[in-house]
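Technical annex B. To support the medicinal chemistry partners, we prepared a structural model of the target in complex with alpha-D-galactopyranuronic acid, based solely on the information shown next.
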Amino acid sequence: MIRTFCTNEIREVTELSSSLWSFSPCSGEFAGKVYPVVVPCCWESLPDFTAYRGQGMFTKEFKASGNIRLVFKGVSHTATVYVDGKEVGSHYNAYTPFSCLVPGLEEGTHKLEVLADNSFSEKSALHIPNDYMSYGGISRGVLLEQLEDSYIEYVHAVPVKEEDGWKVKASVKVHALEDKACKLEICLEGGETVSEDLTLKAGQEIVVEKTLKAGQVTEWNMESPVLYGISAVLSDEYGAYDDLKDRLGFRQIVTEGKDILLNGRKIRIKGFCRHEDHPMYCCALPFAAIEQDLQIARDLGANAIRTSHYPNDELFLDLCDEQGILVWEENHARGLTEEHMRNPNFEAQAEACIEEMITAHINHPSIIIWGILNECASETEYGYECYKKQYELIHKMDPSRPRSSASCKFKTDICFGLPEIVSYNMYPEWYVAEDAAFYVKDLYDWVQTDSPGSGKPFLVTEIGAGAIYGYRTPAKCKWSEEYQAEALEHQIHAVLDQEGCSGIFIWQLCDVRISFEWFANRPRTMNNKGIVDEYRRRKLSYDVVKKLYHSYSDYR
Ligand code: ADA
């Protein structure tokens, strides 16, 4: 399952994932050995490859002819794609989709090979030894698309509320493989349909911008997350030959003073940071595992998820759209120092991640904040320039959402003047032996009096404590479940009772695996700050968080 809804009725699309492939490692003890796997698959889920860092080849045969496009929703972390032994594309970053166009294929059976590489090197500025795992494999869905002589690459639909009602700013990208005269039709469910005749040259890519009037709509919000379809169709004298469908929600998200407004109402974010991580599936979580995480979050009274620290699977975003769960989605980065950010590949890789994230996810109404550069060098001049460029890139691509970045730079952060929202990661009563209420207020007050973030919405994007599942002691010492429960009680009150604070993301929903090469070794080579462990088994803090989250309203 790639999406929770059908994206094409005319274009012939075959899912190549959810079926058998063969996997073979390129090095190590089992080099050349062939394993039958079902993609999506991370090789760390196979006992022989729990700690394998290197390259692996995934192979599958398929039948096709003419112009085809292979769509990969995620390959971790670097992919090189071959069809019949010829390279047809490559991509860096596990967390954003990419596609490979293969025009003029002969009729018959063809061989698809995907070389995945999860090794660490200077070439990789974002996937580095870290407090999460960079897995190896084809970690998300794969599609085979049969194209004609031109096709629709994306349909962007940004809702805008005007004096005379809701409208949709639609942008449709059309790619011509041959010279072509055709008609593009854009249809908004319950609203207007517009069309435009196109005369395209071979190789030409154009973006058609149209504003469509909406009919009587129900606004999207946490209580009633109503979604509407939008479709684009290409036709010629023989009829319709290509299409693409997506969904949108009519909602506005703006900041006003220290408030974040969803359709004009001040929201209180009660969220969790969530890695895509699971002991059975690694980062290739199937629908059921994603849905389980969302049900746990909602049972706990959460209304938001932060995709720490990278763009998430579209399946996750589809479910958040349908369930009215708010999302902070961020580009891929965690804890990069200035030295890391000076890697010659860093800026291009970070900016490519933003472009691919927004191009793929702009329509999801659940995404209310675009985040960047979690805990990177925002206390340095060099870092400031990088943050500035990336915030500008986001605004250019999507001015409709506020921006932010989770800082851990205490009172030395110099970037709070750039985004709409000020966000901090802080660990009073865990990394610092300070009373949570005092610590939160002290930092909040500093922002108001001594930083360019004064008067902006203030979020705590990480706060929490560790607990080893099953470690229980009346002594309530660190790493016990009792300690975590008590610390979180203090922390949640400290944040949600702080005047002017718009919300909290607890670090984190569940325990996750970390890179065994990361310098700060942790118990079990896991990040143990989950409210549930990696098997989603509840810790003592579960009921404490549940009671507290449910006691605070979704609105301020
Ligand atoms: C940081 C970081 C998280 C995680 C957390 C922790 O805030 O953003 O990814 O590493 O610390 O558990 O210490």
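Notes passed to the chemistry partners:
The domain at 12-147 is CATH 2.60.120.260 (Jelly Rolls).
The mean pLDDT is 98.
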